[in-house]
Amino acid sequence: MNEVLIELKNITKSYRITKNNLLKVLKGIDLNIYKSEIAAIVGKSGAGKSTLLHIIGTLDKPDTGTMFFDKKDIFSMMDKQIADFRSKDIGFIFQFHHLLPEFTALENVHIASRIAGNDDDKRAKELLIEVGLEDRMHHKPSELSGGEAQRVAIARALVNSPGIILADEPTGNLDTENADSIIELIFKLRDKFKQTFIIVTHNEEFAGKCDRIIKMSDGLIINE
Ligand SMILES: Nc1ncnc2c1ncn2[C@@H]1O[C@H](COP(=O)(O)OP(=O)(O)OP(=O)(O)O)[C@@H](O)[C@H]1O
Ligand SMILES: [Mg+2]
């Protein structure tokens, strides 16, 4: 493994449950993510995996700690700069596809490109072909199978060539066959685009195929 893309140092996060009660969810995370790797994050429910992914994706801020992304100190930036960074450099894939129901597959991917200021209809089409949906581009989410909708979500995550794609249980809502084909697709896209991925998963087979398994327990990384 080569160049560091993301460097997390001493990330902590607590949630206030009651006036006197603080729930410590992340207790000091140090982690490097390398360019073009597929890193799996595994661990029991409640370990803090999604919380960590949200912080890396700047959907949430840590209480303490720093994140350097391509040597930029992200949480020292102004909120507007952070939002701009997020739209350009972070791709998200969730357990449920979260596509906009009133728009077609192509429009869903294209809109993500427009939001980041790229407006690249050609790339949106190319990516839908790349994920195997050449003949489903003009279908709305309700006219797609679960596996197809997740492929659209993957094309959408890729459309701005983000520095990283963060996936939170991307196969969690799919049957084995569809899950396997999504896994295969993610590896194909990494090989083709040198795309970096962090994938939270409960799927042991998937985790086992990744370049690295990062195991979390009770707010800490317990092994790599
Ligand atoms: N906004 C919040 N307010 C209070 N507690 C929260 C909040 N978000 C998460 N938590 C708590 O933080 C802990 C870690 O949650 P997190 O979602 O990161 O777990 P996880 O490892 O992703 O679990 P799972 O595998 O079930 O998705 C949980 O105990 C959860 O209840
Ligand atoms: Mg989670």
Walk me through what this model shows.
With 224 residues, this protein is an alpha/beta fold. The chain is 34% helix and 29% strand. It has helices spanning 49-56, 79-89, 105-115, 121-130, 146-158, 176-193, 204-209; strands at 4-18, 21-34, 38-42, 64-69, 72-73, 90-93, 164-168, 196-200, 212-217, 220-223. β9 and β10 form a beta hairpin. The chain is globular and about 55 Å long. The protein starts with a strand and ends with a strand. The mean pLDDT is 95.
Task: Write a short abstract of this structure.
This protein is of the alpha/beta class and 224 residues long.
What would the keywords be for this entry?
224 residues; six-stranded mixed beta sheet; four-stranded antiparallel beta sheet; 10 strands; binds adenosine-5'-triphosphate
The CATH H-level homologous superfamily: P-loop containing nucleotide triphosphate hydrolases
Helix content: 25-40%
Supply the CATH architecture: 3-Layer(aba) Sandwich
**Overall domain count:** 1
Query: What ligand molecules are bound, each kind once?
Result: adenosine-5'-triphosphate, magnesium ion
Give a topology summary.
Elements: E1 4-18, E2 21-34, E3 38-42, H1 49-56, E4 64-69, E5 72-73, H2 79-89, E6 90-93, H3 105-115, H4 121-130, H5 146-158, E7 164-168, H6 176-193, E8 196-200, H7 204-209, E9 212-217, E10 220-223
Parallel strand pairs: 3-8, 3-9, 6-7, 7-8
Antiparallel strand pairs: 1-2, 1-4, 4-5, 9-10
Helix pairs in contact: 3-4, 3-5, 4-5, 5-6
Bound molecules: adenosine-5'-triphosphate and magnesium ion.
